[in-house]
Amino acid sequence: MRSRLELSIAVFVVSAALVSADSPALVTVVKAGRLLDPRTGNVLSPAAVLIDHGTIKEVGAPSRVQADAPAGAQIIDLGSATLLPGLIDSHTHLLIDVIAPPEAEITRLYNGRFIPGLLLAIVAMSPGERVLLGAQLAREDLESGFTTVRNLGFSGVDGDVALRNAINAGRVPGPRILASGRKLTAPGGYFQRLNPAVAEPIVQQEFLEIGSPEAARQAVRTNVFYNVDLIKVAIEDDITQAETTAIVDEAHRQHLKVAIHAATPTSIQMAIDAGADSIEHGNGATDEELKQMRDKGIFLDLTPTFYGGRATKILEETIVLSPAFRSALASSDDKARQRYDGLVQRVLRSGVKWAAGSDMCWFSPGRSRGQATAKVFTSLHDAGVPPLDVLRALTTNAAGLLGWQDRVGAVEPGAFADLVAVAGDPIADITELERVRFVMKDGQVIRNDVGPR
Ligand SMILES: [Zn+2]
Question: How far apart are CA 296 and CA 21, in angstroms?
Answer without folding.
Answer: 47
